[in-house]
């Protein structure tokens, strides 16, 4: 499994410090101390260790019983109290909206921040089978203000050939002023307790940092759609020996799409596309298995959040592709308040179905050609929706088109983790130097929001 060399170097240094200090963090910097505490917490959890050798894949701890799970959560500091956030209540939905838009992930220079919409939360957190008590919050007793949040949504995973009843953990957010209060481990334990009460013991989660121990590592890639704006807000720089005019020309897309039969997906397409996606997803080692009800919710329920397209010719649907919108707020810029961001989501193609081997040279060549045209057209669709950059990961078969379509490798890496499940490393579509691997590609087929 490939890892960012810089992250690996930092991790090695941390492990040395752990061995030397034996718990003494007095000489560590604040970031080192935070990483130390995170590592110390995960050592207490049923997760794979860095040096684990996995012979048999499966649950780490399989002896738990839901009736043995405590009915009450861990105690909080006196000024805080647990709550269940009711997203059907507009006021409580607003609480989550405000907390995440003001305190969730932003870049290190505090220039950009995710700008979630209320519709995005309804789409991502209220799919089929969602549970109100899996939307966990912490409020201050005095004001009732929501200051921390974490969520779980039900998901059936397939890890290689095994189906796992699971949840996906997302939107862990703590108010900036409270991040020294050690709320993160308590939030994780509380959402775990609530999920365990439903006799579910596995979870999928992601993080940009290296924790014990990644199942897979993928890399972000960015394709400028409006290079001028990206440059003006500081999202991208001007390369040496290049002019602004040259960069604008480099990333200019055709005015019209090129794929015959490309159109928005409709309700009538569900059965055919559901079958196509399932067949395409079968090539990967880590996927989410959708029911038809879940499929309809994920790809058709939120027109302003997720965009789904099919390619139909002579009554046959040969391709499916989707992307979702999650803009950035631009901080401290007098000219722009928002960046439009598109994220490649799930797709499927029958281009290489005639070849039983996913890596057959002729099949890979046909798939590469098909995906290059399809994703290029998706970029045009995103541009026409006023999006300024289009993001993708090195997961799925993306390595076949990322370089061809001028996606630049990003600085960020996303690590995939399985809770209470040990598994051999799964390819993330990266070579040892972290460039995109067009030959082996990725075996990660799940796309996390």
Automatic annotation (TrEMBL):
Pfam (any one): NMT
Localization of this protein: Cytoplasm
Gene3D superfamilies named in the record: 3.40.630.30
Where in this chain does the record put each Glycylpeptide N-tetradecanoyltransferase C-terminal domain? 232-447
Q: Which GO terms describe its molecular function?
A: glycylpeptide N-tetradecanoyltransferase activity
Q: What is its EC number?
A: 2.3.1.97
Major place of localization? Answer: cytoplasm
- What does the sequence similarity comment in the record state about its family? Belongs to the NMT family.
Q: Can the keyword Transcription regulation be found in this entry's annotation?
A: no
| Complex formation | Monomer.
For the keyword Amino-acid biosynthesis, the answer is no
Its biological purpose: Adds a myristoyl group to the N-terminal glycine residue of certain cellular proteins.
Reactions catalysed, semicolon-separated, are: N-terminal glycyl-[protein] + tetradecanoyl-CoA = N-tetradecanoylglycyl-[protein] + CoA + H(+)
Q: In what residue span(s) does the Glycylpeptide N-tetradecanoyltransferase N-terminal domain sit?
A: 59-218
Q: Taxonomically, which superkingdom?
A: Eukaryota
Which is a Gene Ontology cellular component entry for this protein? cytosol
Specify the enzyme's EC class, one word.
Answer: transferase
Give the region (Disordered) as residue ranges. Answer: 50-71
The identity of this protein, by name, is Glycylpeptide N-tetradecanoyltransferase
The UniProt keyword set, sorted, is: Acyltransferase, Cytoplasm, Transferase
């Amino acid at each position: 499994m490939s890892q960012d060399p810089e992250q690996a170097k930092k991790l090695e240094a941390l492990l040395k410090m752990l061995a030397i200090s034996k718990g003494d963090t007095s000489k560590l910097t604040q970031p080192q101390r935070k990483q130390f505490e995170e590592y110390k917490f995960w050592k207490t959890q049923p997760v794979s260790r860095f040096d684990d050798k996995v012979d048999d894949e499966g649950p780490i701890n399989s002896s738990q019983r839901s009736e043995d799970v405590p009915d009450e959560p861990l105690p909080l500091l006196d000024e805080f109290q647990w709550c269940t956030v009711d997203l059907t209540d507009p006021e409580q939905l607003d609480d989550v909206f405000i907390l995440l838009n003001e305190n969730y992930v932003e870049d290190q220079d505090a220039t950009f921040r995710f700008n979630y919409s209320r519709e995005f939360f309804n789409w991502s957190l209220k799919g089929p089978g969602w549970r109100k008590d899996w939307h966990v919050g912490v409020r201050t007793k005095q004001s009732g203000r929501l200051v921390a949040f974490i969520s779980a949504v039900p998901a059936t995973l397939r890890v290689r050939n095994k189906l796992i009843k699971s949840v996906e953990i997302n939107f862990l957010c703590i108010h900036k002023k409270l991040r020294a209060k050690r709320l993160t481990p308590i939030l994780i334990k509380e959402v775990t307790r609530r999920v365990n009460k439903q006799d579910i013991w596995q979870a999928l989660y992601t993080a940009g940092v290296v924790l014990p121990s990644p199942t897979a590592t993928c890399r972000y890639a960015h394709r400028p759609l409006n290079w001028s704006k990206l440059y003006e807000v500081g999202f991208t720089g001007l390369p040496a020996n290049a002019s602004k005019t040259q960069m604008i020309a480099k990333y200019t897309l055709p005015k019209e799409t090129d794929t015959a039969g490309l159109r928005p997906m409709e309700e009538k397409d569900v059965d055919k596309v559901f079958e196509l996606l399932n067949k395409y997803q079968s090539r990967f080692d880590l996927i989410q298995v959708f029911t038809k009800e879940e499929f309809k919710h994920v790809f058709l329920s939120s027109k302003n959040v997720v965009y789904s397209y099919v390619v139909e010719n002579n009554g046959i649907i040969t391709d499916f592709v989707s992307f979702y919108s999650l803009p950035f707020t631009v901080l401290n810029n007098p000219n722009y308040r928002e960046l439009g961001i598109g994220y490649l989501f799930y797709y499927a193609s029958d281009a290489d179905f005639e070849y039983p081997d996913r890596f057959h040279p002729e099949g890979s060549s046909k798939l590469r050609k098909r995906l290059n045209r399809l994703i290029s057209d998706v970029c045009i669709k995103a541009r026409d929706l006023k999006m300024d950059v289009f993001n993708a990961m090195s997961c799925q078969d993306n390595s076949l088109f990322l370089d061809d379509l001028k996606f630049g490798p990003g600085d960020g890496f996303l690590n995939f983790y399985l809770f209470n499940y040990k598994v051999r490393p799964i390819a993330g579509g990266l070579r040892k130097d972290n460039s995109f691997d067009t030959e082996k590609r990725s075996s990660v087929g799940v796309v996390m929001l």
